[in-house]
Amino acid sequence: MKKVLYLGWLGHQNIGDELMWDLFREKFYTKADNDVYRLSHTDKRIKNKLSYNKNLLKNYDIIVLGGGSLLTPGCINILYQAIQVNKDIKIMIWGSGIDWIEKRYLNKFILKKGNIGRINEFNIFPHKGFVFKMQQVINHATFICVRGHYTYKMLQSMGLAVDKVIVSGDPGLLLHPINGEHRFTSESNLVAVNWGTAKNRLYGKNEMKLEKEMANSIKVLTEKGNKIRIYPIWKDDLLPCQRLFQLIGDNENVELITSLLDQHQIMELIKDCKFTINFKLHANVLSAASGIPFIALGYRFKTFDFAQSIGLESLVVSTDDPNFEQSLLTAVKYIEEHGPSLMSNIPLIHKECERHLDQIFELFK
Q1: Coil, helix or strand for 231?
Q2: 183-342 CATH choice from 3.40.50.2000, 3.40.140.10, 3.75.10.10, 3.40.50.880
Q3: Quick check: pTM over 0.85?
Q4: Is 90 exceeded by the pLDDT of residue 248?
């Protein structure tokens, strides 16, 4: 029996990362030879042990770096150490992405369409040897898909040879919409708002200011006859959601979801929405997978990476936008005018994403 380890940011009660594992596990048990391969996954405890005791990596035949913003020094170091202790180990990367990129570099990507030249790795990740280790992992890997073109271009800009890297799309797009249909309900007046916290590690670095701007924007939406549902996707988002709800102060038109929902419950929650507004990345992914237009709050690099990968950069409002409220309402108007056409390519994108990411399971037969 060959041992397969799914390496992810798991055990933190974050729906986005958990749904990546759920999707991979479901496909693995459907498509892989379960008589040959045994699958397990990391949690906080196991991941910490692997970080500090590389000899534990000898216990695995295959390590899959899963979906999420996992092209980080910590995860890449684990993969690098695995190669050092076991030259025969197989390394696979399944729709992972880069995050934590400063806004000045993101602006260059947007203005120059991703062709920004060479970037010093220490300006991106102040960890010695990241590019060297990343290149060793790429060279050794059996399969590599990254979630977005910006991730791909960022790796390229750091001087990495990326010829074998495929841009797959975010694995969250593999989710199937409710009733198997991508839908857009222009007649609805319901808007889902995903809210939360990034611990102030966001573009603009001022969550309290952003919260007030969001509350003001929601008040404008309710004045125009919309009903609002506010919901979290991470345990640390619960309190910020309550605070936003109280700041709006409208129990008649605004509903607060006070519990964490799984991905299927969220898709049920948003299925009749006219559009969604989302703080966290995978709230946008769930909306896209459902065929519902979304406004993505561009709080970090990964949000822009995802939106660009599905051709909807115009629906991102950066959290450091000096005219945030006006930009958000302009995006709302754009959706109201172009709603059905905005999501028309999602079924095709879904199929292409699935085609790329499912290639990994051919290696488990």
Answers
A1: strand
A2: 3.40.50.2000
A3: yes
A4: yes
- Give the phi and the psi of residue 62 in degrees, each rounded to 5: -140, 135
**Rounded distance between C-alpha atoms, residue 191 and residue 280, angstroms:** 16
In contact, 250 and 231? CB cutoff 8 Å: no
177 vs 361, higher pLDDT: 361
Structure tokens at 353: 């994403």
Q: Burial code of 98-123, b = ≥16 C-beta within 10 A, e = fewer?
A: bbebebebbebbbeeebebeebebee
Which among 320, 316, 322 is positioned nearest to 335, based on CA atoms? 316
Q: Which residues of the chain form beta strands (DSSP E)?
A: 2-7, 37-41, 62-65, 90-96, 143-146, 166-167, 190-194, 227-231, 254-256, 275-278, 294-298, 316-318
- Report percent pLDDT > 90 for the chain: 82
Q: Check if the beta carbon of residue 228 is closer than 8 Å to that of residue 221.
A: yes
With beta carbons less than 8 A apart as the criterion, state whether 319 and 301 touch.
no
How far apart CA 159 and CA 120 sit, in angstroms, is 9
| Cα three-residue angle 298-301-303, rounded to 5 degrees | 50
The residue assigned the tokens 């092209």 is 71
